[in-house]
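Service request form, structural biology core

Requester: graduate student, group of Dr. S.
Request type: structure prediction, single chain
Budget code: on file
Notes: please return the result as structure tokens.

Sequence provided:
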Amino acid sequence: MTAGRRSRLVLVLLVSAGVCVLASCGIPTTGVVQAGGPASGVVPTARLYFVRGGALVAVRRETDAPGDVESALRELLLGPTGAERDKGLTTRLPPPTGMPSAVPAVPAAGGDATAVTEAPGGAGLVRVTPHEDRISVELSSSAGELSDPGLAAAQLACTADAAQRTADPDAEPAPVTVTLPGGRRIEGAATGCPGV
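Core staff response, request fulfilled:
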């Protein structure tokens, strides 16, 4: 084969390949293909602590305010859902008389803000006060007598601690102090919280 013939053969092969590429090799053109809704990302959740067999159990609950201690405690006070109860989860906290609502945080003396989670009847159940070095959670005397005060305090402290960790995963969470009805205080009650 001569050099001229080889050149023509190479040219014919290149042109043929180019025609196939330009013709998309027989694949018809299509418009926009609908494949569902847009990507939504991760659903925000709060870690709440309930009780099973006398021990704390962490569960994830969908929330509008991940990392907000007051919102997490409002969810906790609602108690376990039907599906969670079916898994044997209970609570040592008093049941609210209805859906709790948050009273906006108001600056207190010393510049700290206090938020109160209330039942609709107006009886405050939990008061949360963030300080520079700790968070105080106070369960109101209107909650009545608790069947297991230590476990109830651990539920509150672990839920508050988990919310802090969600808000700023790299920071060391502030210790949580829980005050129960009757004035009993449990310092640093968030130690030993189980994970999800």
